[in-house]
């Protein structure tokens, strides 16, 4: 599987089948899934904690570190896909709608090359 050839629907089905085979549906409540996604996101952050911006970018060139980051990224994505399955959310629609709102909130002409209104940090989405 790869991003160029795999649909979101295929990934959702992969997660759904995995959960069903283990009969985990009773445990996959929105509360549990969002908490689990947050926990996994924290584990993802640990790989970058205390690194300089340059060192964090260098992770891409270190196959061992990159693999470990990919494992945590997959955990986050899997929990979020499971959440979409439970709530009946269309991931592509959610992302597309959010990007329309983001474009209105952060016009390119106003935010090009800068993070936020005061440049104190990244603009939130």
Structural write-up:
- Helix content is 65%, strand content 0%.
- α1 (8-21) packs across α4 (63-87) and α2 runs antiparallel to α4 (63-87).
- The protein has two domains: 8-89, Orthogonal Bundle (Helix Hairpins); 91-125, no CATH class.
- The radius of gyration is 17 Å and the shape is globular.
- The two termini are 29 Å apart.
- It has helices at 8-21, 30-46, 53-58, 63-87, 91-105, 108-111.
- The model has no long low-confidence stretch (mean pLDDT 94).
- The chain contains six helices and no strands.
- It is mainly α.
CATH architecture of the largest domain: Orthogonal Bundle
Helicity, as a percent range: 55-70%
Strand coverage percent: under 5%
Radius of gyration: 17 Å
SSE-based structural type: mainly alpha
Compute the average pLDDT. 94
Most strands sheet = none
And the CATH topology of the largest domain? Helix Hairpins
Total E-strand runs: 0
Oligomeric organization of the protein chains: single chain
First-to-last CA distance: 29 Å
CATH class of the largest domain: Mainly Alpha
Low-confidence stretches: none
Helix tally equals 6
The coarse silhouette is globular
- Output the helix-strand order: HHHHHH
The CATH homologous superfamily of the largest domain is termed: MazG-like
Question: Short description, anyone?
Answer:
This protein is mostly helical and 125 residues long.
